[in-house]
Amino acid sequence: MLELFINPKRAERQPWQMFFIGLFYASLSIVLAYIMFGSDPVLSKGMGLLIVIFCVIFTMPFIYYTIKLEERKNIEYDEQIKLLKEHWNAIKVFLWLFLGFVVAFSFWHMVLPHGQNILNFQIQTYCSINQHSNYENCLKQYGLLETSGITGKVTSKERFLSIFVNNIKVMMLTLFLSLIFGAGAIFILAWNASVIAAAIGIFTKFQVASIPIGLGRYMIHGIPEIAAYFVAALAGGILSLAVIRKDLNKDRFWNILQDSFNLLIIAIIIIFVSGIIEVFITPKLF
């Protein structure tokens, strides 16, 4: 039933509507996981992962049909520039959906009792990335008493290289998942939305009124970074559907392959730029 809320063609005409779809899907995921597993002594420890899984389940049909629509455009359009412009419509849809995820995750993370447990895995990820030399204290500060041997300080250049390499790995994983199953990359994207939400909660000291400031802090580099993942997911999804539709022996397949390759190059460039913004620009603004 949920997949009937909005279809890809309508979403591309009014992409801002996907913000509210993202709000709804992420909120429903948190409510269901909280009600079903919040009191379970075992599954409650994996709440951060369960929420993402629910979110993926709700979003999967829409992502699949959107990628299917984009694959058809490779048949309708011969010019690469025009084709890339058409793909940008889908990217905007994904970005609005992602922003809805981030806002909903951030809000519920702050207002629900024991909110740190809702995104517990995400907070661990935040601490491992941003507080290498103080990882254990970071976890203790937010109620997650785990241990790790991560230590050491890094320079800005080393941090940029680390972030760039890590983001390239995430992009390749997104591409791989979308090749296996056109909409499979949605797990990586929903997970990143939840990690950013955890970071916003920490940055704003869990003050709901400060969510816009937190969004500004992380969306400056987060939007292009996630856009790159969406571009890679789109590239893999288009190629995956071409194989499924048995276009391998058709001349059109080479156009599809070229389109996917162009999208992948664009994704790498965007990741490089987002890394520069994250390391050298964002810290000076916030």
3D architecture notes:
The protein is globular, with a radius of gyration of 19 Å. 78% of the residues lie in helices and 0% in strands. It has one domain (2-285). The chain has eleven helices and no strands. It is mainly alpha-helical and 286 residues long. The chain has helices at residues 8-13, 17-37, 47-76, 80-111, 115-118, 120-130, 135-141, 156-180, 186-203, 211-244, 252-285. α3 packs across α10 and α6 runs antiparallel to α7 (135-141). The chain starts with 7 loop residues before the first helix and ends with a helix.
Give a quick set of tags describing it:
286 residues; mainly alpha; 78% helix
What is the number of domains?
A: 1
Average per-residue pLDDT, rounded, comes to 80
Q: Provide a count of the helices.
A: 11
> SS-based structural class?
mainly alpha
Largest sheet: none
Along the chain, the helix and strand elements come as HHHHHHHHHHH
Residues in helices, as a percent range: over 70%
Pick out the low-confidence regions: 146-151
What is the radius of gyration?
Answer: 19 Å
Strand content: under 5%
Number of strands: 0
Terminus-to-terminus distance: 42 Å
What is the global morphology? globular
Oligomer: single chain
Question: What's the structural blueprint in terms of helices and strands?
Answer:
Layout: H1 8-13, H2 17-37, H3 47-76, H4 80-111, H5 115-118, H6 120-130, H7 135-141, H8 156-180, H9 186-203, H10 211-244, H11 252-285
Question: What would you say about this model in short?
Answer:
By secondary structure, the chain is an all-alpha fold. Helix content is 78%, strand content 0%. The chain has one domain (2-285).
